Structures are given as C-alpha cells and as structure tokens.
C-alpha cells in the first residue's frame, strides 16, 4: 500500500474521550470510524460529497476492512487521516489510509477498505463516471 503518485486527502482532528478505553488509549474500532471520515473527506475534496453519491441512487457497501496498528494513540492527540484510492474497478474500489500523530509525524495505523458499488435496492452497479474519473 502506497500513496506515492496519488491524490491524497488529509483531514485532522483531536482524538475524543469517547473514542478511548479506560487507559485513555484510542480503541481499535475508532480507527475504522476515522477511515470513514478520511474517505468522506476524500470525496468532498474531489467534488462529490458522499451524500450526493447516495442521492444519485448508489451506496458503497464495505466488503473488506484491514488495519495494522503500529503505535497507540491517546485522548487529545491531534490526528491526521490520509486517504487515497489504491485500486479502482468498474464496480469496486479500495481506499488506502494512514493515521498519523500530527504532532510527531509518526504513522500509527495503516489500512485499507474495499467497497462495492450497489444501487439502493442492493444490486451491484458500475461506479458513477465522476468517481471513475478519479482513477486518472
């Protein structure tokens, strides 16, 4: 997984108390939510809010999630989520992610999510042309 040579969207925020465990360490599931924020921001920066995607009659169903936890993050840490498209097919795409401690620059989590485009009635469908254009 590499973001080299790709459009990379970045979004930053602080790790919230509700996202941590009793030790103040960010819970592993919170990173998956941060992946979602990363890809939502990616779509916005490319000119297509995900809400518009849904209004256009489509959903991106999650088919696979991968996360590799390298270093823990704690409550109050400034987080930067980097997101890019790893691969794109006619009906599916895979996003790549890095979650970075914004203060130190340390990469704390890497991951990917694979999505299948479906219609509102659940049928697999081609990705809209506007999204396919992101591949280039």
What do these coordinates show?
With 136 residues, this protein is an alpha+beta fold. The chain has one domain: Roll (Thiol Ester Dehydrase, Chain A). It has 3 helices and 5 strands; from the N terminus they run E-H-H-E-E-E-E-H. Strands 1-3-4-5-2 form a 5-stranded antiparallel sheet. A hairpin with a 5-residue loop joins strand 4 and strand 5. The two termini are 18 Å apart. The mean pLDDT is 94.
The percent range for strand residues is 35-45%
Number of strands: 5
Helical residue percent band: 10-25%
CATH class: Alpha Beta
C-alpha termini separation: 18 Å
Overall pLDDT level: 94
The radius of gyration over CA amounts to 15 Å
What profile does the largest beta sheet have? 5 strands, antiparallel
SS-based class: alpha+beta
Low-pLDDT stretches:
none
Question: Which structural traits does this protein have?
Answer:
alpha+beta; Thiol Ester Dehydrase, Chain A; five-stranded antiparallel β-sheet
Architecture blueprint of SSEs:
Layout lengths: L8 E6 L13 H18 L4 H6 L2 E12 L8 E11 L3 E10 L5 E13 L9 H4 L4
Give a short overview.
About 20% of the residues lie in helices and about 40% in strands. It is built from three helices and five strands; from the N terminus they run βααββββα. It has a five-stranded antiparallel sheet with strand order 1-3-4-5-2.
């Amino acid at each position: 997984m590499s973001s080299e040579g790709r459009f990379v969207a970045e979004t930053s925020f602080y790790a919230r108390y509700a996202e941590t465990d009793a030790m103040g360490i960010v819970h592993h599931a919170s990173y998956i939510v941060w992946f979602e924020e990363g890809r939502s921001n990616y779509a916005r920066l490319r000119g297509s809010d995900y809400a518009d995607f849904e209004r256009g009659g489509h959903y991106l169903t999650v088919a696979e999630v991968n996360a590799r936890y390298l270093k823990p993050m704690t409550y109050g840490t400034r987080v930067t989520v980097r997101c890019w498209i790893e691969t794109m097919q006619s009906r599916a795409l895979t996003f790549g992610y890095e979650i970075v401690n914004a203060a130190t620059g340390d990469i704390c989590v890497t991951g990917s999510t694979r999505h299948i485009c479906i219609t509102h009635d659940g049928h697999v469908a081609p990705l809209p042309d506007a999204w396919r254009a992101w591949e280039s």
